[in-house]
Amino acid sequence: xxxxxxxxxxxxDRANDPGREGRIPLPDRAQxxxxxxxxxxxxxxxxxxxxxxxxxAVIHSPELADRxxxxxxxxxxxxxxxxxxxxxxxxASAKRWNSEVEWGVHARAAKEAGVAxxxxxxxxxxxxxHLDESAADVYKFTCQLQMSGEVEDETYxxxxxxxGNRGIVELTALIGYYTMVAMMLNxxxxxxxxxxxxxxxxxxxxxxxLAVLAPPKLRSATSPxxxx
Length: 228
Prior knowledge:
Layout: H1 5-8, H2 18-21, H3 34-45, H4 55-58, H5 62-77, H6 83-96, H7 100-112, H8 117-124, H9 133-148, H10 153-187, H11 206-210
Protein name: Carboxymuconolactone decarboxylase family protein
InterPro entries: AhpD-like (IPR029032), CMD-like (IPR003779)
Region (Disordered): 1-37
């Protein structure tokens, strides 16, 4: 079935006001195609409880939305990593990409999972957080992968020792998934939920601020070689 713009609400006046509703509106369930309704119902009956964040945009491609929400449910709720460390990796990724919706949702989730307020605030402000050893391993892994596209051997071995092959693969998938989430949120300007404050400066410097946590020996492909 082909879904035209009128069926999914793309011609609604809200679509002309990206600052209020984002660039792509979330259609009402009654306006959705049967495929969209099926995904919508699975999401609201699952652990999320509502259509939130990137799914507001992704629902316009129902097959993608179905696969997206299943991957998201797995990496957030079913991996071997402790909840607090998963949320730590997520907020670091949100900071990297200046994704306010991702940050707002997961900063709260991180605190509920036991991540200290001072740690969340340090990451938000671009400062190095004080972490215990297991949290530091996850945080370094996340920052190195986000900033350079690779992970130092020492950092890799530390995560591997703690959580094995399954854990390190799932951590990598978690970071990749929430990078994709940030891209979807940012590209389509998905709005902050009601009552959620804006925390990042528009066009801000999340990547540069997070870079202070990446080891200096990890250099980008465009970095000049060290002088000898």
